[in-house]
Amino acid sequence: MDVSAKEAHGLLDFINASPTPFHAVHWVKQRLLEAGFKEIHERNSWHDKCRPGGKYYLTRNGSTIVAFAIGKNWKPGNPVAMIGAHTDSPALRIKPVSKKEGDGFIQVGVETYGGGLWHTWFDRDLSIAGRAMVRLENGDFVQKLVKIDRPILRIPTLAIHLDRQETFSFSKETQLFPIAGLAAAELNRPHKPETPSTPDSSDSDISEVFKPLKIASERHHLHIVELVADEAGVSPASIEDFELLLYDTQKSVIGGLNEELLFSPRLDNLEMSYCATISLINSLSSPSSLDDQTSVRLISLFDHEEIGSQSAQGADSNILPAILRRLSVLNSSNSRDATASTYEQTLSTSFLISADMAHAVNPNYAAKYEPDHKPQMNKGTVIKINANSRYATNSPGIVLLQEVARRARVPLQLFVVRNDSSCGSTIGPMLSASLGTRTLDLGNPQLSMHSIRETGGVYDVEYAIKLFESFFEHYGELEVKILVD
Asked: pTM for this one?
């Protein structure tokens, strides 16, 4: 098939707008709303809200999002075609008490999130983004997204003249703290007048007397709190707490001699999150898309994959099983349609694509790859296989994906690690084990995974989107043809 760079440009816009999982989920929500999806909530009953032919989404913690479209011929126990990805990437996160100074510099305390290639964070133009919890005048608390769009931090390396190391090594606890400016300059800076917070009158006496924690401007540098407040559109005194990540202010771009490469942060795994989102929307572009469909099309973009997924918003939580259980009995006004086993019937007939970026062959380290399994960029999405179940792929899944790819006319590649190499893992094995649902692991090939700047292929973006569209459109037809009990 002919491929273009159009979707790659869309991906880069998404990544540039999404320095944190909170921003990624916000971006996905906006695209879904534009495509006619309706927001629902876990805390409410879905009995009168979700109907066959409808399109819905929900979020948890503002960092995980699940969206689905229900076929008009859906019945309890029918299958769900699922694509799972994740919204998080390795990053540095500001500590709960981050105010530091050293030798005339203002510094910020950070902790490592996930397994990053931390040496790549040195000497980069860094800023901060995330969410702030804000107290309103009526005493309520709301989340505000913040993204400081200018460089304010840098982690400086030591000059080679002062330490001629053969290999670059450093302490993540004492030598990974960014500098934010000079203490003298901060002392001379005109400070904004403090506007006191206005808690609810019933709480005012208590708040004046007792503060369980130091306020934000005492735990963090006041200037940082002021920047966060300005971005949130509130006073510094209204900031109760925040979750802020560092990010590289250098934009994602298309590069290479023939503009065939992506140079970007967070390709792992915002690229797969983007492809899943766009493919779901594209698969529903026709008003009749769901008319003859007996299944549900679903994407689930989880937080916390990079740290093991064991959280309320991670893939190892109850969010996906709970949603599938509610969907399995949907439209069951006739009690004969819904039985005690409809949930298990749905699980046994469903299929999950675990979409997480894959390793492209690195020409400088070709010996690190299994000789017959060296994925190349712009040659198609990679099926990931591991005999020790670090990936959930098996032969029936490969057959299914081949049929999906054949209909979309997109190429596929295969990958296994060397026997003397370690192997990463994904949400695939944990979800296939907990759900008992057929699962396959795949991802687009990239270089420099977990670096602050990664490299991918321009045309693989469209390949993956076309592959996922075909999966959503043809799974109901293919599911009954590939039976392995």
From this structure: 0.95
